[in-house]
Design a protein that fits this description.
Rossmann fold, five-stranded parallel sheet, alpha+beta, seven-stranded mixed sheet, 428 residues
Length: 428
């Protein structure tokens, strides 16, 4: 018994001295098991590749990459793709268990579900449109959401269909006159907050039924408490056109956005379920440069204070019906409905499946443990961000990019453009 006890004791000591955690990693059908100080790459679960080299004394030496990219979302994937094309080596990590960031899509009941909310690709730049079409084929989806205010239904964006439902008007001249009459009653020349800005742009009826409640839920603040610059303009279209975007190029990738990210990351080493901050020193040592797409204030350990972000929570369910609401997106603009909108995912790809998948979307303040979606671009946060941006300028090895790294609300086409520009900048 004594030798057995000694053996068990030795095993326990070795185990404690060699802490490790298993993490799933992805690289174009490459799965990686990550230990604290050891990365093992398994190609189709057969060939084992040790990413460490050894010096003459047999000591481990970490493999160096040209770039460590923190975040496997759109910005990081585009940058990694461009770098790899030029012969650079990249290690992409993400704390989630999937690639794609917030544009990640997964198949449920044969339907591509936008796990983190509706994403409709649109751009006015043909070069960006051509770029994304390298990786997948897009359909002809046009975003035409519906707004529900209590028991009333309206078309978005604000157009002649909306105005007819509101006031019974039929001509653009009648609609313009009605809106202008309401605006003139406000006597607002210098809007001091979002409420006044909206009233000065669209008048009372549109504001109260289609702006106020939705904005309150989206930002978690009364419109009077939000700065006016958040709404620089509200689109008033005096045509019977329900296309939400004016961009000439728009659609949804067939088979979902994850397909694009997979193509972008072909040939790139990707490690999932890998927290940069839990392995900061080790990971930083592996690369000459770091592209960081996470929260810029978190990178600097909140030393100047915490920036504010908005997060989104989803309640997703499969329904035993082929058509729940008849449109991809319905916004709920009254205060009483707790969610901001309902997404029916099959309509993004004109699905004919026997079942459907819907997601109710709830907007909320970001707290630790949640996924941050977009920054709160008020004056206080912008001032604080500029201080962090000044710190970022002093970092020689670190590049900050994306919504969180640059504290900027980017549409997808702007993310791609920014990532391409960042790569081009690195080549000068």
């Amino acid at each position: 018994m004594q030798p057995l006890r000694k053996f068990i004791k030795k095993v326990v000591l070795i185990w404690k001295g060699l802490p490790f955690f298993l993490k799933i990693c992805y690289n174009n059908n490459i799965f990686i098991r990550e230990r604290k100080t050891l990365y093992i790459s398994v190609w189709q679960k057969t060939d084992v590749i040790n990413l460490h080299s050894h010096n003459r004394k047999g000591q481990h030496k970490m493999k160096k990459y040209d770039y460590l990219i923190v975040g496997a979302g759109l910005f990081g994937a585009v940058f990694a793709h461009e770098a790899t094309k030029k012969g650079k080596t990249c290690l992409v990590i993400d704390k989630r268990d999937h690639i794609g960031g917030n544009i990640y899509t997964e198949e449920v009941e044969g339907i591509q579900v936008h796990k983190y909310g509706a994403h409709i690709f649109h751009t006015s730049k043909k070069e960006i449109w051509d770029y994304v079409n390298q990786f997948t084929e897009f359909n002809h989806f046009v975003n035409s959401p519906i707004a529900v205010y209590k028991d009333e239904l309206y078309n978005l964006p604000f157009n002649m269909n909306t105005f007819h439902q509101l006031w019974g008007v039929r001509t653009p001249a009648e609609a313009k006159a009605k809106i202008q009459e309401q605006i003139s009653r406000m006597h607002i020349t210098h809007p001091k907050n979002l409420e006044e800005q909206a009233l000065a742009l669209v008048g009372q009826d549109v504001y109260e039924k289609l702006v106020e409640g939705y904005t309150r839920k989206q930002w978690g603040r009364e419109c009077k408490e939000l700065p006016s610059f958040i709404i620089k303009r509200l689109p008033l279209r005096y045509t019977y056109d329900n296309n939400y975007f004016k961009d000439p190029y728009q659609g949804i990738p067939k088979g979902g956005y994850t397909r694009i990210i997979k193509k972008l990351l072909e040939g790139v080493q990707v490690c999932l379920k890998t927290d940069f901050f839990a392995n900061r020193e080790e990971l930083t040592a592996q690369a000459d440069k770091i592209l960081f797409t996470g929260m810029i204030d978190e990178y600097f350990d909140y030393q100047l204070g915490a920036l504010e972000y908005r997060s989104v929570r989803f309640e997703t369910e499969v329904l035993d019906t082929d058509n729940y609401q008849g449109v991809a997106v319905v916004n709920y603009t009254d205060r009483e409905t707790p969610y901001t909108r309902v997404i029916e995912h099959k309509h993004f790809e004109f699905g004919t499946q026997k079942k459907t998948v819907i997601s109710r979307e709830y907007s909320t303040d970001w707290k630790e443990g949640m996924e941050p979606y977009y920054p709160v671009n008020d004056a206080r946060n912008q001032e604080l961000y500029q201080k962090y941006a000044a710190l970022a300028e002093k970092e020689e090895k670190i590049i900050f990019g994306g919504r969180l790294g640059e504290y900027k609300y980017y549409d997808m086409d702007k993310v791609i453009e920014a990532a391409l520009n960042q790569w081009e900048k690195m080549q000068r």
